[in-house]
Structures are given as structure tokens and as C-alpha cells.
Amino acid sequence: MEQKHNVLVVDDEPKILEIVKAYLESNNFQVFTAETGKDALKILNQENISLMLLDLMLPDITGEEICKQVREKSNLPIIMMTAKSDEDSIIQGLNIGADDYITKPFSPRQLVARVVAILRRTKIELDQSAGNASELTVDTENRIVSKNGKILTLTPNEYKILVLLIGRPQKIFTRDEIIQSVMNGDFDGFDRTVDTHVKNLRHKIEDDPKSPKYILTVYGLGYRFGGSE
Asked: pTM for the whole thing?
């Protein structure tokens, strides 16, 4: 049976949430909903969301600000939903990181089609970003990590760390940044276990965990993703 994608729908209009949720669920998506920006960010930190449908005009945090915060941490696909139909608003939304933009009122069927199209494009092939790392593949649509065609079993934290690092190749992530991105800084003691998660992850994805080529240690700073040198 095909695994469902998790879609987060953020809008302060309950009727829109109800309609969009119904159409997505009828197309085999698992749907989470939020009426405020605060609730949306909470869900993003707690669930493995595949794509977010984001209204720009929310009662507490603007959709633009949510998009900026998400883009600082991940490449999560974002479709903005809004009544702002002028060209400047559309360009602004795309410039801050939205993958697509749909104006209200919209056709729910068209919205579902856009969701499907974007998820189809979000598969990450690491050979495109890490040179000779082609034997390792991360499929963010289905949350599957494989090496040489063999599916690997990762814990949720291991998966999140790997996706975080490959999302910004060559960037050095400090342990504090990993804490904030993976656990939102809410897990006491996680700073003492980052190294353990990385060690376990290396044993699963590296040919030689003692001489890694995917997850590299930058001594005194943290970790980064990179192909073998």
C-alpha cells in the first residue's frame, strides 16, 4: 500500500480548511490543519510534514514570516494560498521561498494537482548535490533513505539530521543549530546526544564510519554534509 504524504494546511478560515482537507484526504493524503501561525510552527516541529499549504493573512504571524522561518531550516515545499492576487505580492511570496502560489477563490481539484506535482519534484538525489555520493539516496516524498538500492532503517532524529545537513550542502551546522532544527530546542539533554545520533547515523550510511564521507566533523564547530574528497 502506498504511504500517505503528510500535508499541513494553514488558514484561519475553518470552511477553507474543511474543504481542502476533504479533497486532500480523498486523494490519499494525511492532513494536519492549523488556524494560526503558532499552531502551524508547532505542528511542523512535531510531525514529519511533506508539504505545507500556507495562507498569508493569519491572525498572529504572517504567512510570509512563517515561510521565512521554515526556509531558514529546511527545503519543505510550500504553496501559498491568499487573496492577494497582484503581481508584486506573488513575486514577493516566491522570492521568500514559496514553491508555488494559488489565489483565492481556487479550485480544490487544481490545488490537489499542484500538490501532487510539487511532491513529485521533491525527491532528493544526492548525486546532484554531493558529487560522488550517488549510492546514497533520500526520498523525501516517502521518507525513505537507501544506499546502493537497499532501504535503511533510521530513527526519526537520524532522518531529520540527515535531511537537515543535505538540505544545505557544505554549510557547517553547530550542535545548537541541530538541536533547534531537529528538536526545536525543547528536548533536555539533546545537546549531549547529538554526537551519539551522528555516530549511529554514520554506522548506517557510511562505508567506513571512522572515515566518513557523507557526514563530516568540523572540529570545534559541528557537522556538515559532503561527498568523499
From this structure: 0.57
